[in-house]
């Protein structure tokens, strides 16, 4: 009887064994699962860069160099970042049809997946602005009035007051912003394409950029009308004043001359 009692297990022995098993399983998962996930992500990134390099060599290397170092026909791409690639290729400006003072927007020839791979490859040349997430450029809840103030202070000199674009020097121009996607407007402010200066977050914060996008959507939306009459291109008070002087005052002068001529003719008769 005493021998059987000595062999009897403690009531908590099964619980202790179960806890040890769970702890061991959790430790093994912690040790190996993150490494496997990180390795899978690294592999996917390597494959994206490899595919991006293939696309780059076909469509970009002739102007920008085989490793993005730049040539006489195209600038260096070292450090431009993925956001610049997403903007330039996503709006069809790149690959360019021909060199010139301004590369116009045209139909895009790449899918978004191809653009992402090309951006990953060019981003590997050096650190630069990343492609923004949707929450960074989504203007929902942004202050359009504040955006209008920021736009007039920083952008209207080239794009005019409502973003309809304008001429610059030596054949360059500021393009119209009507119909441009929120993401591409954000990327343009972030990277400063072609003749445009860059506005990093140290100059215009992420919220500032959202406010500007909200303003442009408000003044260039499909439901936008000109409650005051003819919009005159949205060029602002100078153009409107000039229109008033030339046509308004000119019309009054013509009417005055006509009345004076009829009055003189009536007196002679």
Written overview of the protein:
Among the domains are: 42-131, Cytochrome c-like domain (Cytochrome Bc1 Complex, Chain D, domain 2), CATH 1.10.760; 132-224, Orthogonal Bundle (Cytochrome Bc1 Complex, Chain D, domain 2). It has helices at 2-7, 13-59, 61-64, 81-90, 112-123, 134-137, 144-154, 156-159, 182-191, 206-220, 237-268; strands at residues 166-167, 173-174. 24% of the residues are buried. It is elongated, with a radius of gyration of 32 Å. The mean pLDDT is 84. The chain is mostly helical and 269 residues long.
Briefly summarize what is shown.
This protein is an all-alpha fold. The protein has eleven helices and two strands. Helix 7 crosses helix 10 (206-220).
**Into which percentage range does the β-strand content fall?**
under 5%
Helix content: 55-70%
Q: N-to-C terminal Cα separation, in Å? A: 152 Å
**Elements, N to C (H/E):** HHHHHHHHEEHHH
In terms of quaternary structure, the protein is single chain
How many strand segments? 2
The CATH topology label of one domain is Cytochrome Bc1 Complex, Chain D, domain 2
Tell me the CATH architecture of one domain: Orthogonal Bundle
The H-level CATH homologous superfamily of one domain, spelled out, is: Cytochrome c-like domain
User: What value does the average pLDDT take?
Assistant: 84
Radius of gyration: 32 Å
> Please, how many helices?
11
Rough outline:
elongated
Record the strand order, biggest sheet: 1-2
């Amino acid at each position: 009887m005493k021998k059987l009692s000595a062999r009897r297990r403690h009531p908590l022995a099964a619980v202790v064994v179960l806890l040890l098993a769970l702890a061991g399983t959790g430790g093994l998962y912690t040790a190996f699962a993150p490494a496997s996930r990180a390795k899978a992500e690294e592999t996917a990134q390597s494959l994206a860069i490899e595919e991006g390099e293939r696309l780059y060599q076909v469509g970009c290397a002739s102007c920008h160099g085989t490793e993005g170092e730049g040539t006489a026909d195209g600038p260096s791409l070292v450090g431009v970042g993925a956001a610049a690639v997403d903007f330039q290729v996503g709006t069809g400006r790149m690959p360019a049809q021909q060199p010139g003072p301004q590369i116009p927007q045209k139909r895009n020839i790449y899918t978004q997946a191809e653009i992402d791979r090309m951006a990953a490859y060019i981003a590997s040349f050096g650190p630069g602005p990343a492609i923004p997430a949707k929450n960074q450029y989504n203007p929902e809840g942004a202050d359009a009035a504040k955006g209008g103030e920021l736009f007039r202070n920083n952008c209207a000199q080239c794009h005019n007051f409502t973003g309809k674009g304008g001429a610059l020097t030596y054949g360059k121009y500021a393009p119209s912003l009507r119909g441009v996607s929120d993401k591409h407007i954000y990327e343009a402010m972030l990277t400063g394409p072609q003749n445009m200066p860059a506005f990093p977050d140290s100059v215009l914060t992420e919220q500032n950029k959202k406010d500007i996008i909200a303003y442009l959507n408000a003044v260039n939306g499909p439901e936008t009308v000109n409650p005051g009459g003819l919009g005159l291109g949205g060029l602002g008070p100078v153009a409107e004043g000039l229109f008033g002087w030339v046509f308004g005052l000119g019309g009054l002068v013509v009417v005055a001359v006509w009345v004076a001529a009829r009055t003189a003719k009536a007196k002679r008769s």
